[in-house]
Design brief:
Radius of gyration: 23 Å
Number of strands: 3
Number of helices: 12
Oligomer: single chain
Structural class: mainly alpha
Largest sheet: 3 strands, antiparallel
Helix content: 40-55%
Length: about 325
């Protein structure tokens, strides 16, 4: 019996699939990681179809039964419901693209709903744990200054780890207290910087030259080789800080983002304000995206976030 497991040398993806992925990259601005996930999902589906004598080179031959069989096989293999839902979402996008291109006359995914997800609540640190991690004792050398500045950005501004390590030096304006962040879908937003983050970023920037091997490198956070810090390195930094703070649980960068949102809510911030600060497109599928101006975001942030002010407070420059 054929399986959806790929061989050591997977066959080339159908040309029509390559066109779809190119569309996502050019028109939707999807990240390399998202494109890779979509490609893997299409390869898995293509492998399933191949065992049934069907090819994505002829997408009009794919039926709803083929899609149902694919989902059933994923279930038998024990994939999480969230993983199954993502693969179904990839197929849904793929066949909608084919419909728009008039390459198929019907959508075999239409009418198939995502598996019901288990309700999961994001894990967050309490305020004392978060502050303890931010105050972890590190030597005041370039690496220590970098690590604390990174942690302050993740928690103090609620950034995704990919957003934090993706920052360039010129994306920061510590005097005004904002960072220009590129989020999902290449969407830009201005994220407020806590006073603690501004102080620590300034200290790190004064020592950043210790990492520089290429004067043209503009990445904000650099590793020992002078290259942009990656997500895995950032995760190790957060784990190390949590260990130094004596936290009894595994702490990853996204937990700091969850903690940011949780603590803002606990302090009374409006959910829509937090939505804007986090760069979410919508609060839920039934709510419209809410636009807030920068001045309102700053006011909410300064009032609600526990790290918005510090003993080393800098006056925030007024907008001209």
């Amino acid at each position: 019996m054929s399986s959806t497991r790929g061989s050591a040398s997977p066959p080339p993806l159908a040309e029509i699939c390559q066109g779809f992925l190119a569309h996502l990259a050019a028109e939707k601005g999807f990240s390399a990681a998202t494109l890779s996930a979509y490609e893997n999902d299409l390869r898995l589906f293509a492998g399933h179809l191949a065992g049934r004598g069907v090819s994505l080179e002829e997408p009009e031959t794919v039926t709803k039964e083929h899609v149902r069989g694919f989902l059933a096989e994923l279930h038998r293999r024990g994939l999480k419901k969230s993983s199954v839902a993502r693969k179904l979402s990839a197929l849904r996008s793929f066949f909608r693209f084919l419909l728009r291109q008039r390459l198929v006359e019907s959508d075999p995914v239409r009418g198939l709903s995502n598996p019901k997800q288990e309700k999961r609540h994001p894990r967050a640190l309490n305020v004392d744990q978060a502050i303890g991690l931010m105050e972890a004792k590190l030597p005041p050398d370039p690496e220590g200054l970098r690590d604390l500045a990174l942690a302050e950005l993740l928690y103090g501004s609620g950034l995704r780890v990919s957003e934090a390590v993706g920052l360039d030096v010129n994306d920061l304006d510590t005097s005004s207290g904002v960072a220009r962040v590129t989020g999902k879908g290449s969407k830009e937003r201005l994220a407020p910087l806590s006073d603690a983050a501004r102080t620590r970023l300034d200290r790190y920037l004064a020592q950043r030259h210790a990492f520089v091997t290429d004067p043209l490198e503009r990445a904000l956070f650099l590793g020992r080789q002078g290259k942009r810090l990656n997500r895995r390195q950032a995760a190790r930094i957060v784990e190390h800080l949590a260990s130094l703070a004596g936290l009894p649980q595994h702490v990853h960068p996204h937990m700091l983002r969850h903690s940011f949102a949780t603590h803002m809510l606990e302090a009374g911030a409006d959910l829509r304000d937090i939505q804007e600060l986090l760069g979410h497109e919508r609060i839920s599928t039934t709510q419209r995206y809410t636009h807030l101006n920068l001045q309102q975001i700053m006011a909410v942030y300064d009032k609600a976030h526990p790290r918005a002010s510090s003993d080393e407070k800098k006056p925030r420059e007024k907008e001209k």
